């Protein structure tokens, strides 16, 4: 019985091993055997769901942005999203094929370029919805902060990984200065939500890197003080918090239209939804194709679909961290863990805003919301994540698999 199972394992393993010769040495073959195919499949599934969701939200957005002089086709945003996806998926695959050293170098160069672009936004940026966050490239608007996020994660991961080789290097101070500089530039736009996002990513990377609990405790203790200071001295933060907590008075009411419409839309379809194209509340919802697309999904496909999407995001994050349990390389552990945190935290914030659990914030739902900058930047980040989690299955870290490969 045991000999039969051993023979079956040998036969299965021989079929899984790449054949010798030209095919075995091709980059495509090596990539296919090294990549986390389940992680890639989950990402592609989210992109497909996103196309369906944008198709559902596109008519509402088209009505909102049409007027007497401008007519927007009902599926305009859907076809635009198809265009962005056709650019983003090949980019994700290409980045995932890069060796770790090359992927790190690309991200570090990107961190410098996009930080410089972020610094130029106050001078050459264009204004949308009372915020200056974009640079007009002619074909489309470009949001530097979206592209900076994955590059920032890799840059901080690289800095923190240097602690093993250079213990005297002030990497914590350097990472704090970089994060603080980005926060200042974001608050000028103003973009308080992205400021919080970068702070969360920095703290998560410190936590993963094993920074002393005394340091982490001090940062946690300083967080409420920073929030109070933002409320007192930063109008954008104060307005967001007031709109979330207070209803105001009859003389000075506080506008809750966005959050009220988001709640009415996401619950309008009940458990199973109205069906594709059957939603009506979405036509009253601002930014249905971007910030509040999760609410549109709730109306047309039901709360069950929302729960399944939340589970997909959770599965991606859990998949990455489980895969990192036996990772020995400090940089790869930090970079992959940070990128997974970025992906999960952004999804969590977006879904919390749509369900009324967080103040209104212009943050897209990864791979699902409409937007060129968001889709391309997230695909670039997922490509980096796939590159940093690549493993040769025949050189596995698992003792069981190593012993099995010697059969």
Please tally the helical runs, counting DSSP H or I stretches of 4 or more residues: 16
Distance between the termini: 16 Å
- What is the radius of gyration? 23 Å
Proportion of β residues?
under 5%
Specify the overall morphology.
Answer: globular
Structural class, from secondary structure content?
mainly alpha
Estimated helix fraction? 55-70%
- List segments where confidence is low: pLDDT < 50 over at least 5 consecutive residues: 395-407
Number-wise, the strands total 3
The main pleated sheet reads as: 3 strands, antiparallel
Whole-number average pLDDT?
83
Order of helices and strands: HHHHHHEEEHHHHHHHHHH
With strands numbered from the N-terminus, the spatial order across the biggest sheet is 1-2-3
Description:
This protein is mainly α and 407 residues long. Helix content is 68%, strand content 3%. A 3-stranded antiparallel beta sheet has the order 1-2-3, with helices on one face. It is globular. It starts with a helix and ends with a helix.
Please specify the SSE layout and strand pairing:
Blueprint: H1 2-16, H2 22-25, H3 27-34, H4 37-64, H5 76-96, H6 100-124, E1 126-128, E2 131-136, E3 141-142, H7 144-161, H8 171-187, H9 192-209, H10 213-233, H11 235-245, H12 257-268, H13 293-323, H14 330-354, H15 372-388, H16 399-405
Antiparallel strand pairs: 1-2, 2-3
């Amino acid at each position: 019985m045991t000999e039969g199972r051993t023979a079956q394992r040998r036969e299965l393993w021989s079929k899984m091993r790449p054949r010798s010769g030209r095919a075995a040495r091709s980059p495509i073959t090596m990539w296919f055997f090294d990549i986390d195919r389940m992680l890639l499949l989950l990402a592609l599934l989210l992109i497909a769901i996103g196309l369906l969701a944008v198709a559902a939200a596109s008519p509402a957005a088209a009505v909102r942005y049409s007027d007497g002089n401008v007519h927007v086709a009902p599926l305009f945003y859907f076809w635009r999203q198809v265009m962005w996806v056709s650019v983003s998926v090949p980019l994700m695959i290409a980045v995932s094929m890069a060796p770790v050293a090359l992927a790190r170098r690309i991200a570090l160069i990107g961190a410098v370029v996009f930080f410089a672009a972020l610094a130029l936004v106050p001078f050459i940026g264009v204004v949308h919805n009372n915020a200056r966050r974009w640079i007009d490239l002619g074909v489309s608007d470009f949001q530097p902060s979206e592209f900076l996020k994955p590059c920032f994660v890799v840059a901080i991961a690289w800095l923190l990984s240097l602690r093993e080789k250079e213990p005297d290097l002030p990497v914590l101070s350097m990472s704090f200065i970089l994060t603080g500089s980005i926060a200042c530039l974001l608050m000028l736009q103003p973009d308080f939500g992205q400021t919080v996002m970068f702070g969360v990513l920095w703290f998560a990377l410190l936590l993963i890197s094993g920074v002393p609990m005394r340091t982490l405790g001090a940062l946690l203790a300083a967080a409420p003080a920073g929030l109070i200071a933002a409320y007192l001295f930063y109008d954008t933060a104060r307005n967001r918090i007031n709109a979330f907590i207070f209803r105001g008075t009859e003389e000075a009411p506080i506008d809750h239209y966005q959050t009220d419409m988001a709640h009415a839309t996401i619950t309008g379809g009940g458990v199973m939804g109205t069906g594709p194209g059957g939603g009506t509340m979405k036509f009253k919802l601002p930014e249905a194709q971007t910030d509040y697309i999760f609410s549109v999904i709730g109306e047309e496909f039901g709360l069950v679909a929302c729960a399944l999407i939340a589970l997909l995001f959770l599965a991606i994050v859990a998949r990455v961290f489980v895969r990192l349990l036996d990772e020995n390389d400090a940089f790869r552990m930090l970079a992959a863990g940070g990128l997974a945190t970025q992906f999960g935290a952004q999804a969590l914030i977006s879904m919390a805003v749509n369900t009324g659990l967080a103040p209104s914030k212009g943050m897209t739902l990864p791979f699902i919301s409409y937007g060129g900058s968001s889709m391309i930047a997230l695909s670039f980040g997922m490509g980096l994540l796939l590159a940093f989690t690549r493993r040769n299955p025949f050189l596995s870290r698992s003792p069981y698999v190593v012993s099995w490969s010697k059969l």
